[in-house]
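Posting for a labmate who doesn't have an account.
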Amino acid sequence: DHENFYWHQEDHLKARAADGGWRYTIWRPQVVFGHGLGSPMNLIAAVGVYASICRARGEPCRYPGGIPVTTEATDARLLARAVAWAAAADGAANETFNIANGDVLLWPNLWPTVCDHFGVEPGEPEPQTLAETMPLLEAEWADIVRTHNLASHSLDELVGGSWQFLDRAVRAGGAATPPSLVSTIKLRQAGFGDCYDTEDSLRYWFSEMQANRLLPDWQ
């Protein structure tokens, strides 16, 4: 256990704003879907690499998780639009907002979308701890990089600690947990009501990584 540094940062921000006469908006997203090379919390990269390796092997892309948890995602584009809105919205001054796409997410229900995007069969679920199994496949990933002329990044550079994050997201080896849902009513009442379909969001960011030669494009 350790003290959560975040609250100290938030207190510091509020104090500086009061002293400097400027305003702030604090955002609390759910799991962010976006593209961040090497980020330790990038589910798009972790899922995309896992599915790509399954495709290269000619194997089903088996759901690796356990008991699903009901949660939400936040598209990075949605978060960016909200930040831009808040810069000029009086109702966002010195406020804290939850922000999420607007639908709910269960990874087993989303898995067929993952498989369809990468052109693989889902197969039967096969729970595993990806943080243990996937780092062993550096050589296999290097072959995929060469075969598909991808940007030269190792598995660790591309995914890094996101394997642990994915394990946690899909409850690999974990017990059932309560739903992880937040209310975005406050944000909507303040004037920002944009939303994203999480399946569309997932496909968009996979396509972005493929366009940037970070994942193979199997089309």
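Reply:
Got it, the structure tokens are right above this. The chain has one domain: 24-211.
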